[in-house]
């Protein structure tokens, strides 16, 4: 089962015990998959220790989800699970407009770096926080080309890595390489190698599930980034051969 399937089948719907079991099985096969490692930390860690005990109340608005709120307040939508557990949610997908939840008191600081502001940033811990998307003053121009944006994201990734924010650094580099697979490497290459390994491992899962079109597309992406990635070359050839045989049945 792919990581995407684990998240959407189990974790998003509050099936935490089954989700943890599936995550551990997945990581036993793919121990270098950083998004999976991050998800397991969110699932098993102490939410208050991770986000802080001090919090502010927030009234859920139409269109909100734990993912969008995590993006606004924590700077990463993939942190939805720890935010849901922070609120004692047994089903992250069940968030409804009008619900009152708690957001970490440090959210205003995270939000300011993510282009989000609070209507009462200096309010006490009992104040209601209204999160409103804004355009940060240093936002990239809308005319920014994909190649230029990819270079900027790679620079941000390197900076985050130096700060020890590995998960966010990985996410930035992932976005950069999605925009421009031919992006010239810059800075520490360890993260790129880990990301390529993660892509390959996900493609192998898809291959074993016989989702061959998706697996081949992912290996194509790997090879666009690194044409010499031998494991991707070998497995892609196997997938194409299997697809050909299945089409003849």
TrEMBL record:
The keyword ATP-binding does not apply. Residues 108-123 have a biased composition (Low complexity). Keywords: TPR repeat. Gene3D superfamilies: LysM domain, Tetratricopeptide repeat domain. InterPro entries: LysM, LysM_dom_sf, TPR-like_helical_dom_sf, TPR_rpt. Pfam families: LysM (PF01476). The keyword Translocase does not apply. Coiled coil: none annotated. Residues 56-103 form the LysM domain. TPR repeats lie at residues 150-183. Residues 108-153 are annotated as: Disordered. This is LysM domain-containing protein.
């Amino acid at each position: 089962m792919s990581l995407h399937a684990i998240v959407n089948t189990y974790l998003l719907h509050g099936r935490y015990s089954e989700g943890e079991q599936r995550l551990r099985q997945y990581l036993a096969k793919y121990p270098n998959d950083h998004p999976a490692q991050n998800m397991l930390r969110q699932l098993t860690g102490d939410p208050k220790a991770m986000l802080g005990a001090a919090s502010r109340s927030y009234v859920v608005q139409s269109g909100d989800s734990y993912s969008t709120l995590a993006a606004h307040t924590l700077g990463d939508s993939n942190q939805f699970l720890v935010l849901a557990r922070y609120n004692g949610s047994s089903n992250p997908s069940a968030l409804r407009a009008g619900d009152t939840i708690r957001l970490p008191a440090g959210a205003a600081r995270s939000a300011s770096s993510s282009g989000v502001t609070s209507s009462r940033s200096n309010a006490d811990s009992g104040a209601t926080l209204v999160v409103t998307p804004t355009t940060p003053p240093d936002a990239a121009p809308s005319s920014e080309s994909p190649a230029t944006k990819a270079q900027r994201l790679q620079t941000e990734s390197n900076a985050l890595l130096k700060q020890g924010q590995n998960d966010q650094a990985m996410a930035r580099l992932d976005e950069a390489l999605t925009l421009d697979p031919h992006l010239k490497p810059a800075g520490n290459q360890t993260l790129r190698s880990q990301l390529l390994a993660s892509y390959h491992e996900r493609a192998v899962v898809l291959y074993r599930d016989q989702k061959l079109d998706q697996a081949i597309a992912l290996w194509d992406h790997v090879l666009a980034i690194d044409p010499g990635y031998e494991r991707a070359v070998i497995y892609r050839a196997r997938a194409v051969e299997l697809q050909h045989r299945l089409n003849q049945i």
